[in-house]
Amino acid sequence: MEVNNVMFAFGLTLFAGLSTGIGSALAFFTKRTNKVFLSVSLGFSAGVMIYVSFVEIFSEAKHILTEEHGEKLGYWYTALAFFGGILIIAIIDRLIPSFENPHEIKSVEQINTPFSKEQKLMRMGLFSALAIAIHNFPEGIATFSAGLINPTIAIPIAVAIAIHNIPEGIAVSVPIYFATGNKKKAFWLSFLSGVSEPVGALVAYFFLKSYLTPTVLGILFASVAGVMVFISLDELLPTAEEYGKHHSAIYGLIAGMAVMAISLLLFV
Description:
By secondary structure, the protein is an all-alpha fold. It has one domain (3-265). It contains ten helices and no strands. The protein has helices at residues 3-17, 20-29, 35-69, 71-95, 118-149, 151-180, 183-192, 196-211, 214-243, 246-265. It is globular and about 60 Å long. The protein starts with a helix and ends with a helix.
């Protein structure tokens, strides 16, 4: 595992995680949410992540595991690890109360809406930050692992996750701002909620460094594919449709798949 590859993968993960701060800044410095653009962007992110998960990461995991354990058993391991990744992120999702869940995205317009019960708002913002931090941990592992697999696919994945983190930043900053009236505090708490993503990368690195075998690598890749597919179907697409029209999200989804396909073909 080359040092340059590790630093590259970690840098991408840092960029993706801390983009929650972009959402927070947008909430404070723009008067309206461009809902169509955000809807298409979130759909685009889902398209990138779904396509690369099935075409590249799952296939790479299957290739590694079938070489190690034979065609049938290797495929079983790949499938089990894929659904294991989905199960892990689904359990995390279920453990977070729906009120504080980061899926409840806030639009910029809500900043102009008067709120009461500051303590409840503060609680909502802090729990949203915690929930997002929990969600971002496996995303950090996914981004970091993709960077180690293939830098070509890692960059669009990092951009996709970064776009996905922007509305989550809004979800944290809006209630905290209204609870405290302090933009700086709201921004920094939103920004820091993304720190768990590079923390996930560090955990992945030290785990891989100590226990890296082809089997562990294949299982990790398959699990990452499962995590990314779940995030796309459970978070990105529903949020994209909530922000805009159904067709805008789907057009973004298809565009994301097409761009990912073309980018991979260029490096064949």
